[in-house]
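Anyone up for a design puzzle?
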């Protein structure tokens, strides 16, 4: 009984202090209720003469259409591709370093 009271008091203190953030509501339009799927992206930098190469990433299940891709220059001579799925708003960044290493964010 004492443990229950301490837990209730601690929870009330957190609620009053504003430290607890409400979780976003799940919605079918955001695809958050669907299981994640593996997708292979074809990374083809328009500023690089090298051929495109595949990169496999895990995305939410609602990302079933082709993503939009935009390229930009990053720090230290890196190239950054941002893949965006419009139906869910999910984004994946693929970073290509000067040495040709691939970093997925």
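Challenge accepted. My sequence:
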């Amino acid at each position: 009984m004492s443990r229950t009271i301490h837990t209730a008091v601690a929870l009330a203190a957190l609620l009053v202090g504003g430290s607890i953030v409400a979780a976003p509501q799940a919605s079918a339009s955001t695809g958050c209720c669907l299981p994640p799927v593996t997708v292979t992206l074809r990374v083809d930098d328009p500023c690089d003469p090298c051929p495109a190469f595949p990169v496999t990433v895990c995305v939410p299940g609602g990302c079933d259409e082709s993503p939009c891709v935009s390229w930009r220059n990053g720090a230290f001579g890196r190239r950054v591709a941002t893949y965006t799925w419009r139906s869910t708003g999910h984004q994946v960044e693929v970073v290509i370093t000067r040495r040709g290493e691939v970093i997925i964010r």
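A detail worth pointing out: The helical segments are 2-17.
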